Every structure is written in structure tokens, then in C-alpha cells.
Amino acid sequence: VLFIFVIGMVIAAVCGYMAGLIGSSNSPISGVGILAVIIAALLIKFVYGAADPQQSTILVAFTLFATAIVFGVATISNDNLQDLKTGQLVGATPWKQQVALIVGVCFGSLVIPPILGVMNTAFGFAGAPGAGADALPAPQASLISELAKGVFGNDLNWSMLGIGAAIGAVVIVIDEFSGRVNKKVALPPLAVGMGMYLPMSVTLMITVGAILGHIYNKWCERVGGDVGQKKRIGVLVATGLIVGEALWNVVYAAIVASTGDDGVLSIVGDGWANGSQIVGVIAFVIVVLGMYKVTEILAKRSEETDPSPHPDAK
Description:
Main location: membrane
Pfam family, one: OPT
Distance between the termini: 50 Å
Mean pLDDT: 81
Largest sheet: none
Subcellular location: Membrane
Number of domains: 3
Strand content: under 5%
InterPro entries: Oligopep_transpt, OPT, YSL-like
Radius of gyration: 23 Å
Low-confidence stretches: 310-314
Helix content: over 70%
Order of helices and strands: HHHHHHHHHH
Organism: Gordonia otitidis (strain DSM 44809 / CCUG 52243 / JCM 12355 / NBRC 100426 / IFM 10032)
């Protein structure tokens, strides 16, 4: 309890501060979680002493439960600080926001476990018992679990952790130096770390989205007018893509879990497996380009309706 209280306060402060600066999506929860699980495992091992394999399994589970609570603290601090900052920008009443945040935490506690249960029933999670070949990847969870097992199993490769820390220090120095030489050049340490341990299937689309967003923002600046309004509409479209994809995945998981067939919505047979992926990519590109075109039209209409420049316009 004392560990969760102390470490939770520190991590809440760090993650909340970072969320206020760069947003909750870029807050280094995984990084602080890795530190938390290593510290927790070392403390538990120091207090408990030597343990046989069966006891080590129990201690690993206990460590992961404690770390999960710390992760919950970090996640809530991320959302709360970002929401409070947004409320300050729009002039919201702080105590009403706090009440809404408490309600949100309560509803999240009720909604998230059933959704995870549906996901586990439909697909399973990589590394979990009974997970199949198409199980959902969980690279952060797998990494944290392996770290805890390594501490209690005395087979954790500390030299690799040291090398990673050294690489991180070098990247930070390069980022600071390059930023002073040219503000347009940067090497974010968080992005480097995420790229090292997250699979390409996760990080590739982030890069694609960043490129598309950069192109759209350049278009906004080139055509002029209410640049801030145009950019906000683009952000809304991107947000809709993220939320829509997440909601559809939940709906699809519920369908698969209820039918027991992950191909229940298939349009073509297995013989079209490769071709369908190509068609899917083409369709995705067309949809994205179409949505950006619609965004462009909406931005122009908004400018015609309210020609006065927004404070965010550059």
C-alpha cells in the first residue's frame, strides 16, 4: 500500500505534467510503468527473500497487480490533467469538471472490464493462456510481465537495460543539441523508445497519420484564411477516425464472441486473403483522401460563414 501511494503520487505528477504539456497520448505511461514494475519487483524480492518457482509465480502476479494499480493512477492523472487544462482554456468551472471526472472514472470501471472480457473471448491476448495465432498483441504488457519474471527468476538481462538507458541518454543529448542548432530538427526520446519495442504494425500508421496531418496543415497555411479553424476541423476528422475504429473493433469483437466465428462478416473466401488486403489498403486510402477533401470543403464553408480570424490563426 505504501509503495502504491508513494510511487503512485510520483507517477501521477510526472504523467499529469506531461499530459498537460504534450497531451495524454504522448505521455510516457509505458516508461514510468517499466520503472514501477522493476522497483516493485526488487522491493518485493528484497522483503520476501529467496523463493522457489511456484512462489516466484505468485510473487510475479502480486507485482503485476500492484503495478496495474499504479498504471491506473497514471492513466487517470493523464486524463484528468488534460481535461482540466482544456476546461481552463474554454473557461469551464473546475469543481463541475472534477465531479464529471469522478463520474467518468466510475463508469470507466464498470465498462472497461466487460469490454476486455469480450476481447479476450473473441480473440485472446498474445502471451495469455489459450491465446491463438490471431490473438491481440499486447507488447507493453508482455514487456512488463517479462521484466517481473526476470527479476524473480534471476535471469533479467541487466546489461541490456543499461544499454537502453545509455541509448536514451545519448538520444536526449542529441535532441537537446539539435533543437538548439535548428528548432525544426528533433529526435524525441519517447518516439525512439516506442519505435524500439512496439511492433511495426502499430507504429507504421502513426507515421502515415503524421505525414498526412503535416500535408494538411501545410495546405491550411498555404490557402490562408482562418488557419486555426481549418486545422481544428482536421483534428476532429482524425479524432473521428480513431474513435470510430475503436468502437467498431468493440462491436466486431462482440459479434465474434457471440457467434464464435471470426469470419462471420467475411465478404470473400480464404482464397482472397492476399487480394483483400490490397483492396483494403486502396479503399482506406480513398476514404482518407475523401474525408480530407470533405474537411477542406467544410473548412472553406466555415471561413465563408465566419470570415473573422480566430485567435489561433497564424
